[in-house]
Amino acid sequence: MAAITAADVNKLRTMTGAGMMDCKKALTEADGDFEAARDILRKQGQKIADKRAENETSEGFVAVSVSEDGTNGKLVALACETESVAKVASFRELVQRILDAAVRTNAATKEDLLATKEEDGLSIQEHITDLMGKIGEKLDLTYATLTAEKVASYIHSDSKKGVLVGLKNVGGADTAAVGRDVAMQIVAMKPVAVDKDGVDASITEREIEIGKEQARAEGKPEAMLEKIAQGKLNKFYKENTLLNQEFVKDNSLTIAQLLDKTSKGMTVSDFKRVAIGA
């Protein structure tokens, strides 16, 4: 059995960021083999991930990056179980590492991003698993990417909600202010789609059925139910689709009118909203 010194423990701690006792235990189990000890610590992270798979992750941190030309945005949200972990330096550093990897590789999907290899030979997934082993909590990654004529972004003050919004037909307009306003609108008002054409058919069908049931409960004639339900559906579109929503800063304008007022014909092509714990 190899003698494990304090210097050995500190070396492994520097290499991995794991706690002193965890490093000592791993080195002892690995009989002083540093690579084997690193594998043991990594497996420890996987055990925690498996054990806590059903745990809720309602805290975390969102980070965003928009390309210099403003045509592409990346948004990552790393969720954890407790607020205290969300504030730990190693957690925030991992979020930045993930965002940097997304930008560097132009990852198209979360799966592509998780598979990305870093300079140390570990994938993003392995880095997440490693940190789970160190902090003892479940971590869950959400990733969004958006390409448009112009992309605007916004992160809410709690760092748990973020938005990417794509604008088109911008002309020569400066989109910084209006893009931020629209992104803030999306965070606050949670639209389900850009406009009614983007609403999933299942949602439309559900709203029509709800409208009919409400009208029926109010004693309306059966012959009137479809018309009443369509009226309620139009109200749903107005309240829940971005371009038709009233602008929260000036309810005399819809978002569509706000954009058109800024630059004739400007509109939203798409948006991505990510929220941790909501």
TrEMBL record:
Signal peptide interval: none
InterPro entries with a match to the protein in the record: EF-Ts_dimer_sf, Transl_elong_EFTs/EF1B, Transl_elong_EFTs/EF1B_dimer, Transl_elong_Ts_CS, UBA-like_sf
Keyword annotations from UniProtKB, A to Z: Cytoplasm, Elongation factor, Protein biosynthesis
Domain of life: Bacteria
Pfam families in the record: EF_TS
Location of the Translation elongation factor EFTs/EF1B dimerisation domain: 74-277
Compartments in which it is found: Cytoplasm
Molecular function in Gene Ontology: translation elongation factor activity
KW Cytoplasm (keyword) present: yes
Function: Associates with the EF-Tu.GDP complex and induces the exchange of GDP to GTP. It remains bound to the aminoacyl-tRNA.EF-Tu.GTP complex up to the GTP hydrolysis stage on the ribosome.
Similarity comment: Belongs to the EF-Ts family.
NCBIfam families membership: tsf
Protein name per Swiss-Prot or TrEMBL: Elongation factor Ts
